[in-house]
Amino acid sequence: MEIVVVENYDEMSDVACSVVEETVKTNPSCVLGLATGSTPLGLYERMVRGYREGKVSYQNVKAVNLDEYIGLPASHPQSYAFFMREHLFSKIDILPGNTHIENGMATDENAECARYNALLDSMPRDLQVLGIGSNGHIAFNEPLTPFESETHTVALAESTVKDNSRLFERIEDVPRRAFTMGLKNIMDARRILILANGANKANAVYGLVKGEVTTALPASILQKHPNVVLVCDRAAAQRLGE
Ligand code: GLP
Fold first, then answer.
1. What does pLDDT average to over the chain?
2. Ligand 1 pocket, residue 214 CB under 6 Å
3. Mind telling me the catalytic residues?
4. What is the DSSP string of 127-184?
5. pLDDT single digits (tens) 111-167
């Protein structure tokens, strides 16, 4: 795993953006796996800036998102579909038909998981962007998710509901379940860019880099991937010297 420790969130986002832009310049029709959450917001701002400055075009890029809350329609401001349109897709030249995410309103959940797995198989990710949960989850693969998992539905850990409640008016409004790409789907990406900032991620980052590879800390599986770059700020990296 390549580890880049930077001073702060802005620097983390700068480095992340250069990795993404490099990928797109090398292969203008690449497939990007994208994440939601506060962590990649700075990255997305910079991707929009790079596009507006004419440095990069996303016209032939395809995007596949990690996860979506069950029960929220794509028009709901807290859905991840909305998040992606709001922060990235509506501001760059990616074609809406080339952006993919699970349908949080799917009535047949098994069929939706099968549809998404087939889509993922047909579109191997050249670069997968990831954040990390404070309990070491990636996408919504909570502790004890099998490493062999593919797209599935999950009941969110209480700590995740709490972490994510800051984006909702009330904690009761946070959906308790989600669709998520599985750990195997994530590991299928050719390259993985994982971002972490802030002291509340320090334990998760420690487990990701130095901990035992265990389903108790889902991100630790990334130690087995041949091409991972972790970009994190000093606060998130604080335990790496131990
Ligand atoms: C959510 C998402 C993850 C994300 C994590 C961290 O649960 N499903 O993909 O990495 O939270 O979020 P944040 O970046 O806001 O800390």
1. 97
2. no
3. 67, 135, 137, 142
4. EEEE---TTS-BTTB-TT--TT--SEEEEPPHHHHHHHGGGSSSGGGS-SEEEE--HH
5. 999 999 999 999 999 999 999 999 999 999 999 999 999 999 999 989 889 989 988
